[in-house]
Amino acid sequence: MTTKDYKEIMHTLPKQPGVYRFIDPKGTVLYVGKAKNLKNRIASYFGEKKDRTSKTKRMVRSAERFEYTIVETETDALLLEATLIKKLQPRYNVMLKDGRSYSYICIKKEPFPRVFMSRRVIKDGSFYFGPYTSRKRVGDILDLIKTLFPLRTCNLSLTQDNIEKKKFKVCLEYHIKNCLGPCVAYESEAAYDKKIQQIKNILRGNFGAVRSHFTAEMKELAENLEFEKAQQLKEKLSAFEDYQSKSTVVSVTIKDVDVFSIVSDEKEAYVNYMKVVNGALINAYTLEMQKNLDEDEVDLLTYTIPYLREKFNSIAPELILPFEVALSGDEIIQTIPKIGDKKKLLELSEKNVKYFLLQKRKEALSRANKQTSAERILRTLKDDLSMKEMPFHIECFDNSNIQGAYPVASCVVFKNAKPANKEYRHFNIKTVVGPDDFASMTEVVYRRYKRMLDEGTKLPQLIIIDGGKGQLSAAVTSLKKLNILDQVTIIGIAKRLEEIFFPNDSIPLYINKKSESLKLIQQARNEAHRFAINFHRDKRSKDFVKTELTTIPGIGQKTSDKLLEHFGSVKKVKAASAESLEAIIGKSAVKKVLAYFAAQSDLKDGEKK
To answer: What is the architecture of the domain spanning 548-608?
Structure first.
């Protein structure tokens, strides 16, 4: 993907947190990345940063396009990035391929539940909260819970029967007031469960009553002049409130579901699909549809759901939808959520589809503006040059040589005021000897339009010649010879004063230096010059790498390349036997090579004598 491609769509990108994916022409995901600001992060791949590695540049060049998924927070972006990397294993991703998991806070399903950090989610009925991207943050939360709600940390089986039989004794944790002694019935199970319920509320983000409790406790500590304890409690509470405990991209309360949302207008509809497997969002896709009749969103979603589920091989038993639809198969559960994690997933899907629609509209507006801009420039150019028709197709010629050596020429093509790079052509000068720019221009213009006439290709409306009256006259000679001078407009542009010359008119035209039409002519001239110079440089470079073998009469570049590829050097070719040479290049060529080396040897012997 080029910087030019990016610049055409950069204004459509959102400044939201999310995950982006670079994708190659085959549809393979090359790289997955996260961003706090998608627009700024993606822009960094196409700027002039010198610290970008060659691997990054190669990845961007290999990509045909990129896609992105918007999420609520930077933490969600990190989690979704990890999920996609583990699933897709992109070629250019290195981090997170090791299967590293995130931390959860587990409330164990047992009498007098323990609360602890876990790397694994075990389906035993326990409650899991998270995932948490920072282990330190989990430690802060557990410390806060431990401070506010003394809980047991032992793994004893505190069944009612064991407690009544007095199988246990209090430990050090009881004596330092980290535990209230449920193992010896100093604390009832009902009182303990109330603390657990309060902890669940905190981990779910229900801070209302808990915050009031914290505030009252801190105020009491302050009144008792225990300022240090009050400050410690305040710092831990602040750190906890800053953390968003619930993630919309990974959830332990949701298993396998498909999420759908839709937006539409009079002509088109867009359906966003999110695939959630084992509580993790592993795929997001937006489908664009053309509306043929007055279908409503219910009908469109009813048609689209089976198609997308089949496309992504989904067998999820539950659908999260904005409204109920009629689907075949009673076993599929339809959920229209109002609150909770499922509602957050639906809102995330709706957010993505709305941004997709917004981007499409911005791109359409941008194309319309560009089209308007191109038409304006071409109309101005038509008026400035007094042309009969709009110059939608422009071609520009330039020559390049060094004192007659390596003479070449270029022809660049502009369509709708933009370079058409694939239609550029370069020419080796065939009929001109020595530094004769006029004769070279006559040759390449004739060859170019002779071929277009033979192939039945439509001629350009405007031809630009890089040079003054001499080069222009040379090009006109060819157009007259082809009988097409009256079918095109041809001009020459002199570099010194940017003068525009017309055939058979000695007085040049001066276009305003700020005019868009002159800038277009200059752009075409500069592009033709660049293309010719590059071709000229390449030709010189190829000539410089010729070996001694190519100086042998009758031995060309291909034969020379075969010998060097097989033997490795001219010295080894000289030392090779006639039989081994013959196996590579044949009898006729071997005679020429051996005769040349024999003559060189005789010459050296004569010089020694």
So the answer is: Orthogonal Bundle (1.10)
